[in-house]
Amino acid sequence: MDLLIPVSAYLHIPFCRRRCYYCDFPISVLGDKTNPNISGSIAEYVDFLSEEIKITPSYDRSLKTVFFGGGTPSLLPPRYLDKILARLDQHFGICSDAEISLEMDPGTFSLEQLSDYKKLGINRFSLGVQSFNDELLEKSGRFHRYQDIEQSINFIHQTNTKNFSLDLISGLPYQTLEDWQLSLEKAIKIQPKHISCYDLVLEPVTAFGKQYKPGKSPLPDDDKTATMYKIAPKILSEAGYEHYEISNYAKSGYQCQHNLVYWENKPYYGLGMGAASYTNNQRFTRPRTRKDYYEWVKSLKETGYFLSSDYLGKIDHLLETLMLGFRLKKGIDLLEIATNFGEKNVRKIYQTLLPYHKKGLVKFQDINDNLITEITDDNYETINRIMLSDPDGFLFSNTILADLFDKLESTV
């Protein structure tokens, strides 16, 4: 497998005011933003993050995408983001037309702050709305309320910020179909270029994971969550949003270029506490606490840059390519699969997915992007691309992928 040079970087900013009840991300809770210790904590973290950037090997290719995720990156004063961006540009280089994204939470930034972020070159903003219902926000442990959303959207429009996204969550405790539909309709009225709709996942270590059981009240049952999922593409597509990924919708030309790097299984730098990177055919996740992360960065300075000796095997790479690729509306290109993983695996993929095609959960396309309805062993070679159907195929993606993985691994 040829090694590709990364041209994307994810930077983890771990600070949050509080931990949401569904969150299992590596974060550091700051509490009240007026706490005098916060500035020192942020400054120290930015120093260590900058040091990691400096130590990380570069390959003489400028970055095309940069993504500040968290945590709540909008808790960082602009001067700290300026320092990080300057170090990135100095060490890797940043293309003049790079997509530079910043995750933000309502109520964590001012009009002046947003203006300053834009002056730094940040040109895409992702606002973590999650819900427009104050009761649901409170029951989810969110810090902000509806009036904070309104104020933040005001700032976005006042600064003429065109490229921004809204995040929404379905399947929350006590959430009704009416709540979800109203969230979608309100999001559309705000006119973001991009909308992400995530289904609640109950992670065992979270407050929700300890308190609730999947499908049990007050969570919506499986039928309601499936209906919520199906409502989104219908409403959003009518409003001009393309359902380009299992959880993401965009106006034409506004797909998130950074996230496409993940879904197309391309390499990227991951920098900061708990960040995962994919370079030199290696996946590596950094320590999930600030203390351990700082010790790890110190060790890099002393011993040199070293991640691990474990490289992805070919079957692992194939399974990841399928898992990520089937999240996209465009699915997977069989010519690329054949080139990278062999014709034998292409045939196994086709044979495994044929029953799902008959159920309408999988679609086959020829080289001209025409749907192929009648498939036989004699003409399957005309298939150029395979994708999951929207919305039913996406809804059953876990089942389909589990079957596919089982069949492929059994051939190794």
Summarize this structure briefly.
The chain is an alpha/beta fold. The chain contains 15 helices and 16 strands.
Please describe what this structure looks like.
With 412 residues, this protein is of the alpha/beta class. The chain has 2 domains: 8-263, Transcription Regulator spoIIAA (2-Layer Sandwich); 314-409. Helix content is 42%, strand content 19%. It has 15 helices and 16 strands. The protein has helices at 37-55, 78-91, 111-119, 134-139, 146-158, 177-190, 207-211, 222-238, 257-263, 290-303, 314-325, 334-341, 343-358, 392-395, 397-409; strands at residues 8-13, 15-16, 28-29, 63-70, 94-104, 124-130, 164-170, 194-199, 242-245, 248-250, 269-271, 276-279, 282-285, 332-333, 362-365, 385-388. The strands form 4 sheets. The chain has a 9-stranded mixed β-sheet with strand order 9-10-8-7-6-5-4-1-11, sandwiched between helices. The chain has a 3-stranded antiparallel β-sheet with strand order 14-16-15. Helix 1 (37-55) packs parallel to helix 10. The longest helix has 19 residues, at 37-55. The radius of gyration is 22 Å and the shape is globular. The mean pLDDT is 93.
